[in-house]
Every structure is written in structure tokens, then in C-alpha cells.
Amino acid sequence: MTPEDAYVAALNTCFHMMFIWATERLKIQLVSYECEAEGHVVDLLDRTSIFTQTILRPKIKVKAESAGRVGKALEWARKYSLIANSIKPPILVEPRIESEP
Fold it and tell me: Where along the chain do its domains lie?
């Protein structure tokens, strides 16, 4: 694992934990949660590198009666994620939400 991997993993893990917290608060019946995370790095002329953005792609499955509240849970996860609030580059969240009976 590289430091870059650890950075992306920390952001992904913090967002995940805050999403779980939000689903509990909003009484969402969560069936499953998986998330792919991708960090984009650019190398600068002075041989340093910076992240330009991070993309989180959560795949969320909930019970049908909870589907309408998932967007709010995603908002809260982003709002209350300490790591997401502590970094400079933009974070894009591209969820895929499924519901089941």
C-alpha cells in the first residue's frame, strides 16, 4: 500500500462509516453497501504530486420503503465526514442505488 492508497482508503472508510451512521439515524433499512474509490493525482513540475479529485462510487442496496431517504443519508455522510471536510480537492460521489422488496 502506498501513501496515496492510504489517503483514498481513509476517505472511503470515513465516508462509509458516516453513511452507516446516517442510515441508522434516518431508519433506512440497509441491505448492502460497497464503494469503489478512485483518486486522481497530477505530477507537478517541481516533482511533487497532488490529488486533484477523489471519486467515490457507492453501490447501495436498501429495502424499497427506505429508498427515498438514501439521498439524505449520502448528504449527511458527506457533511459529517471529518476526512472529507479536511482535504482540499473536490470529492465526487456517484452513487448507484438499488432497492428490493
Answer: 3-100
**To the nearest 10°, the Cα dihedral for 61, 67, 69, 71?**
60
pLDDT tens column, 32-66? 999 999 999 999 999 999 999 999 999 999 999 99
Q: Determine the length of the chain.
A: 101
Class of domain 3-100: alpha beta
The residues, ordered by sequence, that sit 6+ positions from 14 with a Cβ below 8 Å of its Cβ are 81, 82, 83, 84
Question: Per residue in 69-82, pLDDT tens?
Answer: 999 999 999 999 99
Which positions ≥6 away from 85 have C-beta within 8 Å? none
Does this model's pTM top 0.90? My answer is yes
Report the alpha-carbon distance of residue 68 to residue 40 in Å, rounded: 31
3-state secondary structure of 94: coil
